[in-house]
Amino acid sequence: MIRIMFVCLGNICRSPMAEFLFKDYVDKLGESDNFLVRSSATSPEEYGSGLHYGTRAILDRLGISYKGKRAELLNKSDYEKYDYFIGMDERNLINMRRILGGDEQDKIRLLMDFAGEHRDVADPWWTGDFESTYNDISKGIKYLYKYLKEQK
Ligand code: 4NP
Question: Whose CA is nearest to atom 14 of ligand 1?
Answer without folding.
Answer: 45
